[in-house]
Design a protein that fits this description.
By secondary structure, the chain is an alpha+beta fold. It is built from three helices and three strands. It has helices at about 5-10, 35-40, 45-65; strands spanning about 20-25, 30-35, 70. Strands 1-2-3 form a three-stranded mixed sheet. The longest helix has 20 residues, at about 45-65.
Amino acid sequence: MYTESMRKAFHSIVPPKNFSITIIDNEYFLTIKLDEKDLTKLTHDDKIEAIKYVAQVKKALEYEGAIVLVTRKPLES
């Protein structure tokens, strides 16, 4: 499912500093997995930039033909 054109689209988008995501190929769809620990360490404005980045990546992958799910693990108390 994860094609070369999807890989190029993903890597063409610059991630915010101190934030990363993982792309998981589930054969029929892709999952963008956020690291909840990375997200909680960001300032309010950096969190907004991180979410904008995730939305850009999702849109780019969908443009290349992927079905995309965005997920993260729940925060532990």
